[in-house]
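Below is a filled-in request sheet from our internal design queue. Each sheet records the structural input a requester submitted and the sequence that came back. We keep these sheets so that new team members can see what a complete request looks like end to end.

REQUESTER: design group, bay 2
PRIORITY: normal
MODE: inverse folding
CHAIN LENGTH: 127
BACKBONE (tokenized):
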């Protein structure tokens, strides 16, 4: 499936989520995710929503940029997933960071609103 085949509303959800992360505003980020959202990272494994939001609120994690090119997606009832390649920059514990990753976000429609319930990151390794 090419990027043009990814439903526009999923691209818009991803853009909204990216903008929330770059805002470093916990309320904006929380508005994009379910209460049980999990972020799966290569460094820490599954990280619950509360831990991510606490790290952002403390300023230990900031994002300056975040982009994603969605390449694959599916919708099944009130569930949807979108996979693509993303890049981001920011700081963690005061040190600069940047990432180039394959990202899969799983969304669930809750009371008519699509919210991310799981984000899975896989680093892109240069060959």
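RETURNED SEQUENCE:
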């Amino acid at each position: 499936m090419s990027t043009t085949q990814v439903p526009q509303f999923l691209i818009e959800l991803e853009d909204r989520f990216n903008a929330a992360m770059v805002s470093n505003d916990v309320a904006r980020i929380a508005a994009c995710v379910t209460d049980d959202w999990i972020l799966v990272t290569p460094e820490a494994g599954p990280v619950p929503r509360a831990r991510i939001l606490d790290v952002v609120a403390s300023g230990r994690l900031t994002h300056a940029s975040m982009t994603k090119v969605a390449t694959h997606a599916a919708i099944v009832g009130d569930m949807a997933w979108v996979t693509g390649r993303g890049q981001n920059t920011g700081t963690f514990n005061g040190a600069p960071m940047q990432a180039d990753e394959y990202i899969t976000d799983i969304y669930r429609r809750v009371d008519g609103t699509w919210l991310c319930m799981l984000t899975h990151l896989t680093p892109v390794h240069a060959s």
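SHEET NOTES:
- The first strand starts at residue 33 and ends at 41.
- The chain has one domain: 3-123.
FILED BY: M.R.
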